[in-house]
Write a structure and sequence with these properties.
By secondary structure, the protein is mainly α. The chain is 84% helix and 0% strand. It contains 11 helices and no strands.
């Protein structure tokens, strides 16, 4: 608990952002539901407001658990770094944010969209405010807590305990392996959503799923290892911000 007390401002701030993200993610999800499915879902919990409240509470609880364990583990294995102004880190955040933002918009529509019609048409409608805020908060903060601060730290701790117990310092390759495993799991977790969104899955859609949800995760994991979780969150936030601005203004 001492690590959480020492970093309580970071802990409290990220939980607050996750609460906001949970709310807007739930609203966006409700907007995306089929009307009949939405009505059936609401009936199960008696009201739309209660459904939203339960969803936000669940996401917030996960955020508290994952952030708390992540802070403890990252401190134990040497991954934790307090957020401080670092010029090199800022430059890398800008570069990664721009490249990821372009990938999440331009590459997706004009490269994948040229081969996959449903992807091309998914850009016919502009993103809603709820979707944008969800991407910035839930994607930029909650996903970094879950995937980098918690899972990448957990895998690194497990690997170090099994194979490098006698080492004074954990080898860099442990963090690299953990980053790759985390990214692959995250990308694989999007396969059901891809099937739901497009109604089918084939080799090209599967490649898109892993590229769009994995390639940039490697960069975010590298930022986490090199400069701390704060910079990976900023880069993830920046990637979504740039991609949604491009979608709104140019696509």
């Amino acid at each position: 608990m001492k690590y959480i007390k020492e970093n309580w401002k970071f802990f409290a701030f990220t939980i607050l952002i996750c609460i906001i993200g949970g709310y807007f993610t739930t609203i966006y999800a409700l907007q995306s539901f089929d009307p009949s499915l939405l009505e059936e879902t609401i009936k199960q919990v008696s009201s739309k407001e209660l459904f939203i409240g339960l969803s936000v509470a669940q996401i917030s609880l996960y955020a508290v658990i994952f952030a708390g364990i992540g802070i403890i583990l990252s401190n134990k294995i040497g991954l934790w770094k307090k957020f401080e102004v670092n010029k090199k880190a800022i430059i890398w955040v800008i570069i990664i944010s721009i490249l990821a933002g372009l990938g999440l918009s331009i590459v997706d529509k004009y490269v994948f969209g040229s081969f996959i019609n449903p992807v091309l048409h998914s850009y016919d409608n502009k993103p809603t405010i709820e979707y944008i805020v969800s991407a910035l908060t839930y994607g930029g903060v909650f996903e970094e807590i879950l995937m980098r601060l918690f899972l990448m730290s957990l895998f690194s701790w497990i690997i170090a305990k099994i194979f490098y117990r006698k080492e004074k310092e954990i080898p860099t390759k442990v963090f690299v392996i953990s980053n790759i495993v985390t990214v692959l799991l995250f990308a694989a977790g999007h396969i059901p959503a891809t099937i739901q969104a497009f109604g089918y899955i084939d080799a090209l859609l599967l490649f898109r799923c892993f590229f769009m949800n994995g390639a940039f995760g490697i960069a975010f994991g590298w930022l986490y290892r090199k400069y701390g979780i704060g910079y990976s969150m900023v880069a993830h936030f920046g990637a979504h911000l740039i991609s949604k601005l491009i979608w709104l203004l140019f696509i």
